[in-house]
Amino acid sequence: MGFIMVYLVSYILSWLVGGVLCLLWPDRGFAMNCLQAHLACGVGFFGLFNFVGHCFFSERVAKSIGWVSNGFQKEIGVISLGIGVSGVYSGLVDGGRGCLPLVIVLVFFLVGAGVNHIREDLKEGNHKVGNVLIILPDFLIPLTLLALLFLVR
């Protein structure tokens, strides 16, 4: 359950950083400041945390999800690192202006993972904490980014 809390703390921290950015640069607007914060902090942290978990703590992560560790976890870890680096770049360097392709990839990745976790719970009876509680960030992060993008555009 601890690693799920890390995602939620990161999510809340992204909103707080967005609020600070609003105080520093109010002319950019609430949605843009929060989008940048969610990209740099939220997506960046998500990618790094997933990378470390799936590549260096594969057995423990797989067990918490109710799966058996395998080579696919390393692939998940590496793509997560790419998403995280892209989030930091998009939020800090690009100012969130060119983030749509990244958000599209992240939405498909996380919503697909969320649907898979729901399927595992319902069809396979996998009620492990790592399989069930991760569903919240799997849908919350994409919905937040899509809403902020909508507000910015």
TrEMBL record:
Q: What is this protein called?
A: Stearoyl-CoA 9-desaturase
Keyword DNA-binding tagged: no
Which UniProt keywords are present, listed alphabetically?
A: Membrane, Transmembrane, Transmembrane helix
Residue stretches spanning the membrane: 6-25, 37-56, 76-92, 99-118, 130-152
